Amino acid sequence: MSGFIAEQGKRSNAQLIKRLVLKKGDITQQDDVDAIVSSIMSDMNMEGSLNQSLIKAAGHHFDEFILDNIYKPRPGDTYVVPGFDLPVKNVIFIVTPVWKDDFDKEEAYLLRCYRHAMESVRRKGFKKVAFPALGTGYHGYAPDKAARLAIKGIMDRMVPEIEEVRIICNTDKIFDVFLKRLKKMGDVKTDG
After folding, report:
1. Confidence (pLDDT) at 166
2. CA-to-CA distance for 12 and 1, rounded, in angstroms?
3. Residue 11 above 50 pLDDT?
4. Neighbour-count burial of 122, counting CB atoms closer than 10 A to its CB (0-12 exposed, 13-18 middle, 19+ buried)
5. Are residues 117 and 90 in contact, defined by beta-carbon separation less than 8 angstroms?
6. How confident is the model at residue 137 (pLDDT cuts 50, 70, 90)?
7. Cβ(42)–Cβ(75) under 8 Å?
């Protein structure tokens, strides 16, 4: 372990924020990371475009494995499953809520999802991971709120052992929202 220990506050994140990379593209094509992250709803609904592209790229065994091995998931739960035919060896599924209104607990759930995914990355010893912009599509979160929660959740659990965390945005609009949020924190690495 290195001698760098992050403390709370904007300045302590200065070194760790440099490990966060924003990129436009298709998360299923991230072939140089240890894992990619996806979401699944507590009712096991896999209808979102992210999951449909994962199933298509990973093959039918991927879908069967998920249905056979994930039972009664709750918001915030994480599952690490094999990537099957994907160019990446692992997929981390986090159970995400559907946004309802500002008074429900979905904001805390989405933040917890990112934190739990990062904890799984650390526990598994993964060095590089790619996240989609969770919550911005099928789940219905406002993009600026989703960006704020994503970055906070990732940075809350960023440790020196993790070399790179990518946020993969599949549209220009989502990329721009995340870029604006990241620029408030300092220098931003982008690849897109």
Report:
1. 96
2. 17
3. no
4. middle
5. no
6. confident
7. yes
- Kindly state whether residue 162 falls inside one of the protein's structural domains: yes
For residue 168, the domain's CATH number is 3.40.220.10
Q: How many residues does the chain have?
A: 192
The pairs formed by 72-76 with CB atoms below 8 angstroms and a separation of 24 or more are: 72/42, 73/40, 73/42, 73/44, 74/42, 75/42, 75/106, 75/109, 75/112, 75/113, 76/109, 76/112, 76/113, 76/116
CA distance 145 to 165: 19
Q: How far is CA 74 from CA 50, 70, 78, 188, 191, in A?
A: 19, 10, 9, 33, 33
Q: Is residue 163 part of a domain?
A: yes
pTM of the model: 0.85
In a domain, 1, yes or no: no
Q: Both tokens of residue 12?
A: 């302590």
Domain extent, residue 161, equals 28-191
